[in-house]
Task: structure prediction
Amino acid sequence: MAETFKTGYGLDASAGRIVLARCARRGVPQVVLSVAADSDEAARVLKTVAADVEKGVAALAACAPAAQTAVRRLRAPFASPRKAAKVWPSLLDVELPFPVESAACFYGEPRLADGGTVAIAAAVRKSDLTAFGEACREAGFDPTHCDAEALALWSQQVAEAPPARADLPRALVWLGTDHVAIVRGRGAEFMAAHVLRASPLAGDPQAFEAVWAARVRPIVAAHLAETGGAEMDLWWAGPGAEDEARLARLRQMLPADYALRHEIHRLPASFLARALARRAADGAGVNFRSGEEAHPALRRLREREAKWAYGSVVAASLVVLALNAGESAFRRNRVAAAQRELTAAAQAIAGEAIPRGQENLMVERAISRRDEETRPFRNALDPEGMETRLAQVLQDASALGIEISHLGLSPAAISIRAAVPNVQTIEAFAERLQAQDWTVQSEPAGTTPEGRPQFILKGMVGHER
Amino acid sequence: MNAERLWKGAAGTLAVCALAASLNTGLSTARHREILSAKERDLQQIQIHAGRWAREDALRAALEKQQAWAPADLGEIAALALGANAAKITPRAATALADGWQRRETAVELRDVSYAAAARFLAAAAESVPPWRLREIEIGPSAQAGKGAMSLVFESLEKKRP
Result:
């Protein structure tokens, strides 16, 4: 029972009577009906419940016939719930009087104990389940949940009478109208269940007492042996527990050598109905009606929930896709804006259509071309120019007593042939030219007819003017 | 059941698409930043050159404002600075520049001119509007000190009168 419901109904129908309890989610179960099954009130209330079930707001739980339900405690020899889950069917198959494949099975929450994994399993034949369903519908109700009686009784025992000690052996005797169930455990832990196919409320009382006397002693003995206790609490519930005289007689038949404390549950006749209602409401119980056997209203509810879940995934996915599309568009716009700015800046310099990605190249080419085109304007603006350079060279030559016989000067090069008073003057002249950003080399060129040393000097400008 | 399968299929497909889109967005973030950074870098580099020819453009505008479409006659300047027939003027072909302006070169041959006279000639040429600026000079030997035979190349700007 994974689902929870706003309202859970628990129905205990036996011996021509029905007991109906109602429980809100996380609430306390209340008895709403305890009448003859064929009464008008029963029909009216069950119709209302059926309407709530159809709307999907309520669950109606009944329990599978106890005599046809097997409840076993399984133990796998490894401390891994995942591994253990794989062998539960095999282990249960050994325990069942029918093939596990032919049964609707339930496996409880596994827990680790003594190096192994333990879980409670419950099973009922599918054919018995189908027959039970048909019987229910013939009786005027169609339960959404088919619970295991022993497990429902034990969980209600824990809920209504929490154990004083975790290791205290306890048992609950359910005196039903057509059978007796003895459910036993330690503290809150369920251990085993036994069904007596006889009841003090039906048939020959002496025959029942004979069965009771014969069965109950070994059960109590086994329980105390398994739990290692010397005393135990014995709780009584069920329609048979309303008669104190009957209870007193049954107690007398219990073995006197065991220390047993007896307690009777409040409202014992509706104990099972309350258990079923609570478990149906909070989703804590078993539901053998699953898969193809599931109640149509429950199937519809699951389909609606599945659609809602898928719809949520669709909506969330669409939102995520929209966000991604938005982010993608935002990025495209940012890149486009940056590209527009870049293109505009490049066009302002290159002045033509700029292929995307070639902005720098086009700008470099444009700069190179336009630098050349504007060079005469720069020359015109040059405050010094070639004229000043020429004057500087002539002035330096004059200052050093150099007689220039040939001079060539361009923006990039200089060449001089001249006569000097002495060789040292050549070096001094070269230094002066280097100070004016010329890179020069000189070589001697003989002497003049008067005997003065001559030289040839060639130079390149340090940077373009 | 078919409707549920349809919903399941749609939900699964859309969820996968959403996941793929999110992955794509996440993984492309670095690349997107890289692209933007590269464009910003390029822009900064290009913006360095903004106004690169502002002075040249200003000169051109000034010349056009003054309607100084052609330089002064270099022969007249030479005659004033050096005396009549002292210079042999040889205009060269013009080359096109920006916005209809042309670069005009003129070769000038001077024989036995003193450096001082040559300097006056150069200064006078440079003061005209547009100016004649010296681009090349070659001074040959002369019998007299302080003098030389000179070959000069001047450069100036001109534009056809609009």
Q: What stands out?
A: Chain A touches chain B through 57 residues (CB under 8 Å).
